[in-house]
Write a structure and sequence with these properties.
Elements: H1 7-20, H2 25-42, H3 45-61, H4 65-82, H5 85-101, H6 105-121, H7 125-141, H8 145-160, H9 169-185, H10 189-203, H11 209-226, H12 229-242, H13 253-265, H14 269-286, H15 289-305, H16 309-365, H17 376-393, E1 397-404, H18 407-414, H19 416-432, E2 438-444, E3 447-453, H20 457-474, E4 489-496, H21 504-521, E5 526-529, E6 535-537
Parallel strand pairs: 4-5
Antiparallel strand pairs: 1-3, 1-4, 2-3, 5-6
Amino acid sequence: MEICENPQQAAKLKEQVMQLRSKDCKKVIEICDVLEKYAYSAEDMELLGFVFFYKGEAYYILNRIDDMFDNIANSVTFFSMTEQWDLLARSYNLMAIVSINKGNAPMAVDYYLTSLKCAKEHGIDWMECSIHINVGYLYMQNDIYREAQQHFNEAYDIYSRSEDKEAQIGRLIMIYTNIASCHMLSGDINGAGEYIRKIDSECRPYFTDMDFVYVGCMEARYYDALGDGKKRDRIVADIMKRLDRQLPILDLFDDLYSLCELTLENGNYDICINIARKLEPVIENTHMINLERQLLILKLKYYEIMHDDAKYAEATGRFYKLAMIMEEENKNMISNMLHIRTALERANESKKAIEAENAILTEKSETDQLTGLANRYRLTDYSQKLMDDCMNADMPFTVEILDIDFFKEYNDNYGHQAGDECIKKVSRLIKNMQNENIFCARYGGDEFIIIYSGLGGEEVRREALRLKNDIMALDIKHEFSKAFPMVTISQGICQAIPQEGNKSWDFLHVADEYLYKVKKQTRNAICFGDIKGHSRIL
């Protein structure tokens, strides 16, 4: 029995699931059960999505469709919460396929379109290609050939942009086969022939047994329409031979069903009933009432042709029971869909609340509590971005550092509360400077940083001088200043067009040297210069 008590063990078990999927489905389910218990205890939403999806996939391969649908439906909520868009799109696609097989086309369309939207928004091309094929097929089944063709063409456009076309050959086979069927069903035999030739030249060398059966069912109808009975019968014989091998019969249901209808029309009753017998046990295991109902329609046609009234009456009674069961199933599916939608809405609301809370926490962590300006942490992250933007645009980048003259003496004599009030008054003037070109931050204590992006030297000097004069205009008494009997500031400013290899810290360091130069020679003044050390006091 597998054990999972920590993230390391969980990671190893996830690797096993990926190695065993489609090889040992029962073992995959067993491992997923262990992972599920750990994921709930660890509140690991991403792992829960993984568990439900791959458990659902295993049930699908085992033809336990109800279990598959329940697990895939559970995975959707967790994928949405953890933004696993690839798996979310795949989940909706699988639920659509099951809905089709259960006979609920409207619900399938809803799932397909949700999956398609997800794939498009997040650039999941291969998934978008598959969904276009599936939606096109759904349109084709309902005799809406123009829209079907559009979806197949969309799928082909995505395939043609693929870098590794050989790896996507399975999708090309489906695209060409469906387009050929679309032409044939709309009465364009020549169009169908064109795509059959494309299949022969581009795809046939890569065929698996499943492809021979899948394409063969379409080709049998094509050659029957051309009146070439010999070629049709050779293809049917090849299909029957391959059906004795291990194939995913359920994936071929629609194609084999169509072939049965063709053999009934041509009087090949033995072949028809032989295929039906191969389909019957697979459908019974899936508990898909709609597929059983379709197979029953085929049998009713067969019994009517064979004049077997007893079996016809028995099948008619079974058909009525299935209709009642299907009605109940559709109610359950609608209930499931509503449950998923409600769960997703709750998850989205929870996600938005968490994002809003995180935004508040981020703002708090990057904001100086006394002044409301950005703090040193925000400055560190943002200043480099501003400098890089200026370098890319070949524009001036300017860093100013300023402090309050003789602020220690102010604090020591007027008290820390008065000192805080002084800083708040100065910071309000600095904060008012901020716009799309000017960013301000408190560096610490009585020091502030102002970054000017894209402003020329004269504009920066004008802004700095205005700030200096506005602070003097506050007329905050400072009897202990050795410069003026009021609060004043000293400013160091470094400006240049950034070059490759420059860091925002380089500008700050030089600006700090210029500030020191002001304080050494005088106070209540501005030292303005470039990054190479050429400066003058204003």
